[in-house]
Design brief:
By secondary structure, the chain is α/β, with parallel strands linked by helices. It has a single domain, classed as TIM Barrel. It contains 11 helices and 10 strands. The chain has helices at residues 25-38, 52-62, 82-96, 113-125, 139-147, 170-176, 197-206, 210-220, 232-239, 248-255, 270-277, and strands spanning 3-5, 11-13, 17-18, 42-44, 70-75, 103-106, 132-135, 155-159, 179-183, 224-225. Helix 3 packs across helix 4 and helix 7 (197-206) packs across helix 8 (210-220).
Length: 283
């Protein structure tokens, strides 16, 4: 497994397993157990996914030593603020059955982000969160957070896939020492990703699947990826992306697919801020 080194020296596997939209407890436990058996050691969840306890149970069932795992979860908007973030962190750790987190992220750039960040800096200094970061932050919000706080986010997890490559944003993050991480590397199949003729041709050329080509292209750009699947065979396929390399022509062809726009939603709009800000989770 290839690792990336975060801005505080913490090593993070470049390939992980995501559990977004696996809400049923039994399904999530089974999926995470299978992923760990395949070889994944980086698991990404969030309070808003409502499956932290299932992830924790799967980790416990696996018997894998804690220091061999890299576990991420995220703070939701309704827990934002200094007191709320600390309470939510403790609840997430309780759900996961863990004493510390490898990475704790502000899930959305809304609510009392600065109060949350002050508490997250405290958690990081205490060693309870080995690294802290953000998710869904556009350049203006990321740079503003960096300029007015002591600890620079280690990670920014954002929508990143062949149709929205974020190639224009990645250099800015690199300049500030922020690791880019992709959510939705397959764009959830939008734009007919899995049957795209360009991706299919590259897959055939390399004798790999379209999914493997997509993940490999992101990894070659030093983008951390967290693909999700509930099928063990696909988990194994997604994990098998280190034995080949895409050439410059392949990478250029994939780069040309970029539309420069989200296929899901734009966090800079009032509708998205209102919609996400009104969503509540139980604590």
């Amino acid at each position: 497994m290839k690792n990336v080194t975060l801005n505080n020296g913490v090593e993070m596997p470049i390939l992980g397993f995501g559990v977004f939209q696996i809400p049923e407890e039994a399904d999530c436990i089974a999926a995470v157990e299978a992923a760990l058996e395949v070889g994944y050691r980086h698991i990404d969840t969030a309070a808003s996914y409502r499956n932290e306890a299932a992830v924790g149970q799967a980790i416990k069932n696996s018997g894998i030593a804690r220091d061999e795992l890299f576990v991420t979860t995220k703070l939701w908007i309704d827990s934002a603020g200094e007191a709320g973030a600390l309470k939510a962190f403790d609840k997430s750790c309780q759900n996961l059955g863990l004493d510390y987190l490898d990475l704790y992220l502000i899930h959305q750039p809304f609510g009392d982000v600065y109060g949350s960040w002050r508490s997250m800096q405290k958690l990081n200094r205490e060693g309870r969160a080995r690294a802290i970061g953000v998710s869904n932050f556009y350049p203006d919000r990321l740079v503003d957070l960096i300029l007015h706080n002591e600890i620079v986010p280690a990670v920014n997890q954002i929508e990143t896939h062949p149709f929205f490559s974020r190639a224009d944003y990645q250099p800015l993050m690199q300049q500030h020492g922020v690791q880019i991480e992709s959510w939705g590397p397959f764009a959830e199949g939008k734009n007919d990703l899995f049957t795209n003729p360009v991706l299919q041709a590259i897959a055939a050329k390399n004798q790999k699947s379209v999914a493997q080509v997509v993940l490999r292209s992101l990894i070659q750009r030093d983008v951390v990826v967290i693909p999700k699947s509930v099928h063990r065979q696909r988990m194994a396929e997604n994990f098998d992306v280190f034995g080949f390399e895409l050439d410059a022509d392949d990478m250029q062809a994939i780069a040309a697919l970029d539309t420069g726009a989200s296929l899901f939603f734009d966090h800079r709009t009032a509708d998205v801020a209102s919609g996400l800000g009104s969503y509540r989770i139980e604590h």
